[in-house]
Amino acid sequence: MNWIQATSIVWVPLLAIATGLLYMGIARKVIARIQRRYGPPVYQNFLDTLKLLSKRTAISHGTIFDLGPIMALAGGLLTLLFLPIGGYRLLSFQGDLLVVLYLVVIAPLGMALGAGDSANPNAAIGMARGLTLMLAYEVPFVLAILAVMVKYNTASLWDIVQAQAGGWHHWNLFALPLSAIVADISLQGMMGKKPFDQPVAPHEIASGPMVEYGGKYLAMLQLYHAVAIFVETSLFTVLFLGGGPLWAFLLKTFVVFLVAVLIHAVAPRFRIGQAFTFYWKWPTLLGLLGLVWALVL
Amino acid sequence: MAGRLSQAGTVHGVSLPGYLLAWFGALTALLGALYAAFQERGKRLLAYSSISQLGYVLFGLGIGTPLALTGALFHALSHLLFKGLLFLAIGAVIHQAGTDEFAKLGGLVRRMPWTFVSVLVGVIALAGVPPTVGFPSKWLLYEAAIEKHLVFLAAVIFAASTAAFLYAYRFIFSVFLGQLQPENETVREGNLFLVLPQLILTALILWFGLFPGHALAWVDPILRQFHLPPLAHTAGRITTSLGTFDATVVGLAFLVTLILALAVFFLTARSRRVPQMDNYFAGEAPTQVSMHYATDFYRFLRREFQGLLRWSADRGYRWLADFVSYLAERLRRLYTGNGQTYVWYLVGFLALLLIFYLRGVS
């Protein structure tokens, strides 16, 4: 048992990539079934990534262009190391929730740099939308996590998980229901699922930042995407669903992901301006109420 | 500091004047950041961003706890470093390319690589992302606000910090990334004296980012002079009542993950360089027109803020000035320039005086 703990820093990233790719495959299947299609097998994304990695041609627009996917993958893995995953602390005692909040943005900003180097206006438009969306969902999300931090008087993720131990009624989902709802609405934007997929919007701006990336670049972005899914669902699980042992932790992340996918499958896309106003209106209002709830109770 | 100024009531243990000062700081930070995102020239963007960043300092001074004061003083130092660097860099761009207008720049990374590297580190610090000096100072300010349960203030300052991503990306993208304009083909990197100062500041930003304790060592004596306890820290690790931030561990972990990602990159097939116009245009033949998406970058966001941006002190002042000159214009019509009119004014005035005099007598 002890060596599993000791090597958690090595196998958790591998687990995250595998889980993320599997979730992406399941999402394709679920969406296909909702739309009355058959859909690809759930392991399709493993095959896609391997194929892309082994492609012999990949075009590049310059060094910064190359740096984009590298920074994205590195930033994603870095964030993962500072989360407590399924009872393993990893490095989460070296930096608290506020540190994680800023590590999360390394990947998208790195990708933004790379995409910007390609001189394709679609990429730039996608990044402008992505950053606007970030400004939009970050405000309600911060209100939600402030409620959690104020409730326990700590910003340490490990302490927040420990405080929720001992049964489901201790989870913040039930202790701070308003904040949990707000955080989940923000998570939809953070994961770029509909109705908040404006930065990518394949029918409008040809996948936005990804427009010039192909071959091994696209493979690395797939890997980053897998890690990002795992990180985002884990963050919600840690903050509101009480973490738990590894199997329970993975189950909870899957439920969080499935909720996002089910909304994604049936929702249309907002205009980016509408998405912004939406986030700064209703979830923000709810978040403020949730914060008052945390301060008063 | 502000805590000693007055005994007039407290909010969550912060004096009322200090609390109001913190709100002014937070709103300045948010509005300054939004205005910065809507500018069309590099220097103007940086100027508005300075307003925003000094809002953070004011925020910390307003809260006035030892933690907040440490954050405020530290942030003043980190702002000095990264804003100094960015102004030097945009100065180099103006010197070499002749303008700081976003629409006329773009793609300069291929012409001015060293300036690009320093701007890259500069905007990462400006956005407040580790492992640069911009992060620990902001982090201390957040912890100070949350420690005192000043959550609504903390939310505003968080929004300001996210808005900083917007203008930081816009700055580096519009000048250095995107499409290189044909008229900028001949631009060259500046000479050693333009580049070297930038690189020195870049190194300092990274050094204090990895070892924030060295910067805090300069803040501690100031706190002692005010008889306040300095913060617990080592060279790399800062601990507050809420949590820990070990800058050196974060930096090292980033290095390791970066090496992993680089390994994936270099172990797979080599990529082929193509010219910048070899892009996906959905079947359209690319022509040599400017496709640098730089003007009005956040148009959709500006539209949402239209109502707010209409209000400005400048415009309010101009409205007042217009109103006064309108009144003066009306008043001027009394002075017709005709001597006879003035005589009648005089007669009227004397008649008024006479009436008042008679009423006074009776």
How would you describe this structure to a colleague?
The complex is a heterodimer of chains A (297) and B (362). Chain A has 297 residues and is mainly α. Chain A has one domain (2-296). Helix content of chain A is 71%, strand content 1%. Chain A has helices at residues 2-6, 8-34, 44-53, 63-81, 97-103, 106-116, 121-152, 157-163, 172-175, 177-190, 202-205, 216-240, 246-266, 272-296, and one strand at residues 59-60. In chain A, helix 10 packs antiparallel against helix 12 (216-240). The longest helix of chain A has 32 residues, at 121-152. The radius of gyration of chain A is 19 Å and the shape is globular. The model of chain A has no long low-confidence stretch (mean pLDDT 86). Chain B has 362 residues and is mainly α. Chain B has 2 domains: 2-247, no CATH class; 311-361, no CATH class. Helices cover 67% and strands 3% of the residues of chain B. Chain B is built from 14 helices and 5 strands. In chain B, helix 4 (66-97) runs antiparallel to helix 5 (113-127), helix 4 (66-97) packs antiparallel against helix 8 and helix 4 packs across helix 9 (212-225). The mean pLDDT of chain B is 84. The interface between A and B is large, with 82 and 76 residues.
